[in-house]
Amino acid sequence: MPAASSFSLRRLARWLAGDPAVPAGPGALDRRFLRAQVLVRAFYAFVLYLAVVELPSSAGLAQPRRWAFLWPVAWLDLFPAGAQGAAILALLGLFVATSLAGALFAGSRAARIAALLGLLEWVALRNSEGKIGHSLHLPVLVALVLAFLPRGWARDDAPRGARLGTLQTFAAAQAMILLTYTMSGFGKISGGLWELFSGRAHPFHLDGFARVIAARLLQTHSESGPGAWLILHPWASGPLLPGAIYLQAASLWVAFRPALHRPWGACLMLFHLANSLILTIHFPHSVFLLALFFLASPFAPARLEWRAALAALPLWGALWRRIAARRPSPAAEVAPAA
Amino acid sequence: MLRLRRLQAALALVLAGTLALGLVSGVRGSGGEVFPFASWFLFSLVPDRVTTYELRVRQFDGRTFDPPRALAAVENLAGSPRSATTFEAVQRYAQSVRDGDEARQAATWQALCARMVRFDLLRFEVVEQTFDPIERFRAGRAAERVVAADLRARAEGVPRPGSDPAP
User: Fold this and answer.
1) pLDDT in tens, B14-38
2) Which residue of A has its CA nearest to B80?
3) Which residue, A43, A109, A281, B28, shows the most beta carbons closer than 10 Å to its own?
4) Whole-angstrom distance between the N-terminal and C-terminal Cα of chain A?
5) B63-102 residues touching A, CB cutoff 8 A
6) Which residues of chain A have pLDDT under 70?
7) Can you tell me the ipTM of this complex?
């Protein structure tokens, strides 16, 4: 059964990767493994930073208020109203303690699972006020994947099997991050197609994004200079939404195309920055995770090769490869005629 | 090798599970998320004609507003007046008022109060607005309908129309 499943997984991975990957070269496994080790430790340091930096505002959650507890923190309902504040403070203490354990003992699976549970509890509490926001989901999902790191991954002299397992787990964490964008992209595509065929305003129309911006700014009584300008100039805002949909929907393919890790990560960071400026929607933790897992990706080539990156683009890459095949290569231009 | 294959299978299962539970969250819609597996269907629809509700404050403790002012524009009343969470809380309360559902009114009012500072007396109206977002943004045009004209609330208890509730 494992052999059959890994065979079909390999086929799926090959399909997602598109053209055969460029050989990694000698010493690549060790180099990549060492970088992945550092990045995983950086992730747990980030969780600890999150616990410490958010502690003052989180402590305010212990004040009496109306809760709609999500399932991971439903146990807080067992406490009488008077004792709930103390229970919430205990939960916050647990989050700090488990994230510290994760940062200190990331090599231990028990510590990583504890960090995952602490983070899950805290994020659930933050989203238990009647509306679920999504800016903190990504660290939880990444922590879930990293709980699977193989035994011995943190050792400098880890055996080859542990090194391969570490890189596969790291790649799965990358895929997890990109999967969330792909789901969002396909949500917009299916919603957009339904709107298109039912004669409503849709994302592929020139004023589609202007409508999204206007509704958001009106809804939250927010002000945004770039947002207001884009509402008044649909020719400028119109292409942004289909562009963002492509960027999001195609993200999962990029997990399997290392040539695109850095540029795609940068584009997704830019996407969040634009959302922040235009729509006043902030996903700062996602920006950090994109920097960690993609700008510093252990699988990305040392230097950005833009021809390879263009050829690896989902959908458009095939077109670029055709164009590139028709043009003489620079090497052929300088080679003397035989 | 067997361990690696098992690890691969487990990781693939986690990714597939995230996708599957995310889709379940999407099908269940607002309020039905299988946390933390979101559908990520954020801004999946482009607003065409939008209907939203606004709480317009006439009186907040000693301060009177004429014309009534939107909750988000009243200083020191809501903790985060411009947050999407406050907006959602206002929508849920206003819809329960529109539907005349007393049980839902009590629950949604409590949820909304949790986002406001304590007050002695609050007088407000609930207004339904229907608009095209771009037209409203550019020219301020919106069709309005007053759902409840003069609701009065003390710190405790559900708002009632008419005379000031007893302290």
Assistant:
1) 999 999 999 999 999 877 899 999 9
2) A220
3) A43
4) 55
5) 70, 72-73, 81-85, 87-89, 92
6) 1-7, 19-24, 64-65, 328-338
7) 0.88
CB distance B18–A131 less than 8 Å?
no
- Closest CB to A130 among B6, B81, B85: B85
For chain B, the distance separating the N- and C-terminal CA atoms, rounded to the nearest angstrom, is 74
User: What tokens does A150 get?
Assistant: 């193989």
CB contact under 8 A, A192 and B46: yes
What is residue A129's three-state secondary structure?
coil
Q: Which residues from chain B sit within 8 angstroms of residue A81, using beta carbons?
A: none
Pairwise CA distance, residues A112 & A118, whole Å: 10
B16 touches chain A (CB under 8 A): no
Contacts of A332 (CB under 8 A, 6+ apart): none
Distance from CA of A332 to the nearest CA of B (A): 43
Burial class (CB in 10 A: 0-12, 13-18, 19+), B10: middle
pLDDT tops 70 at residue B89: yes
- B contact residues 31-50, partner A, Cβ 8 Å cutoff: 33, 35-36, 38-48, 50
Residue A292: closest CA among A271, A314, A261, A270 = A261
Q: What pLDDT, on a 0 to 100 scale, did the predictor assign at position B14?
A: 98
Nearest to A168 among B11, B33, B133 (CB): B11
Euclidean distance between CA atoms B125 and B159, whole angstroms = 10
In chain A, which residues have their Cβ closer than 8 Å to the Cβ of B7?
148, 150, 165, 168-169
Across the interface, whether the CB atoms of A187 and B9 are under 8 A apart is answered no
Q: Calculate what percentage of chain B has a pLDDT beyond 90.
A: 50
**B67 preceded by cis ω (within 30°)?**
yes
List Cα–Cα distances, A317 to A171, A259, A263, A324, B21, in angstroms.
Answer: 22, 12, 14, 10, 31
Q: Do A201 and B47 touch (CB under 8 A)?
A: yes
Which residue pairs from A81-87 have beta carbons closer than 8 angstroms and sit at least 24 positions apart in sequence? Answer: A86/A62
* Burial classification of residue A330, based on how many CB atoms lie within 10 Å of its CB (0-12 exposed, 13-18 middle, 19 or more buried): exposed
Output the CA angle A297-A302-A305, nearest 5 degrees.
105
Span B132-150, pLDDT tens digits:
999 999 998 899 999 988 8
pLDDT tens sequence across A219-261: 888 899 999 999 999 999 999 999 999 999 999 999 999 999 9
| CA-wise closest residue to A239 among A197, A195, A207 | A207
Task: Tell whether omega for the bond before A139 is within 30 degrees of 0, i.e. cis.
Answer: no
Enumerate the residues of chain A whose CB falls inside 8 A of the CB of residue B89.
130-131
Chain A positions touching B6 (Cβ under 8 A) are 2
The answer to pTM > 0.95 is no
The answer to whether the CB atoms of A134 and B43 lie below 8 A apart is no
**What pLDDT is stored for residue A337 in this prediction?**
44
